[in-house]
Amino acid sequence: MIKFIPEPRLLESPRGRHWPRPPAPAQPPRDPVPPTTADVVIVGAGPAGLAVASALWHHGVTDLVVLDREGRSCGRFFDRIDRLDQRVLRSPYEHHPGVEGFRDCELLDFARLHWGRLTPVERREIRMAQAGHRSVVPVDVFHAYTDHLAVTHHVRDKLWGASVTGVRPDGDGVAVHTTRSTVRARHVVLCLGEERRTAPERWWGGGPPPAAVSYWDEPPPGPVERQIVVGAGLTAAHLLAAALDGGREVHWVLREAREHYQCADVNSTFFRPEGRKRFDGVGWSERLDLTAEFRRASVMFEFRPLLERAEAEGRLVVHRGEAVKEVSTGITGTAVVQLESGRRVDADHAVLALGTIPSIGTGLLPAGLVGARDGWPDLDEATLSYRQAPAVSVVGAAAGMVLGPAARNIDGHRVATTRVAAAVAARLRGAALDLRVTADV
User: Fold this and answer.
1) pTM for this one?
2) Is the pLDDT assigned to residue 420 strictly greater than 50?
3) d(CA 384, CA 395)
4) Which intervals hold domain FAD-dependent urate hydroxylase HpyO/Asp monooxygenase CreE-like FAD/NAD(P)-binding (predicted)?
């Protein structure tokens, strides 16, 4: 059997190109503090929050307040990407924060409109996408597309920078408390994304990492000649590629017996309706088993030739099947990673890429309303609202026990958005009807 391995040059798409953007309508200066009331508050302006705001616009729901700690549409998403020097997305062209069921400019349409700005390799990917094959999306194209969505669906006009400190449902709606003010809403959608997974406390006793050790999403250190990367996923692969490109000697520590290459962390069946149906009608323990079995840390195929060549040349040393026992700083200020096998790896710097965990609302909603179980919230499967707080919904990774492993990917955000936006719009129309009936009486 012949297996096709895509060329690494797909990873080299340019970053920072100028893209024409639709003109934003002129707006009068606005108060830096958000309004005190809104029909819907969306917490988080990443790809999931952008998808929800765009979908609600199509449903005619325009009284929105979008709250984001960065104050920028997809700001943290692209900051993380740029920190890794990432040039392409794992998600293909059909996975994007567009809106299901409405005529809209989709990601593939947008890329074709800007054909003249694309490289020959990027154009070939578009042809692959048009033919129904897997394709790779340049970060530049995706970034310009999210800007396009934010302008054409008036999301920027609804976005305020603020850190949310609490979400408190009551009989009249939901109070969303921020560091700047409180907004009362009839419905809230949490699009919180995921946070980095921290190292086990036993590695160094808990708290911030030792000197010369950092997490993947922290500012990079100064000049480094020898680096350790701990982790088995795509983030680790980007760190490895950047370090090798910088001429460093790199050590890669993998707990598994071998690195795993595949198109996505999630088995492709879960991106299709028949795959998501595997979560319908099965018990909680079966869903946990499916998630554990079919979502695993993996590296895009495009990295394989690059990493195999670096290992053959001695520039990359891979420690396979090695669990970390302890992480510390040596007497000369270097990073020291002690392995369970007794081996020790020293370098100028060690970076930890241990994956991410879904943000499920804990810390914002009262714990009893989250109903956390095995790290997942208790959600109504039809509306993705909290069973104990029907006026609050989630879109993103937190919906994983309803939609399956793909909930954590951009495609899963779109599927969840379709369900949530329709439910929120219907709920608001019902509330409006109730008000009219009361007034008539």
Assistant:
1) 0.92
2) yes
3) 8
4) 41-194
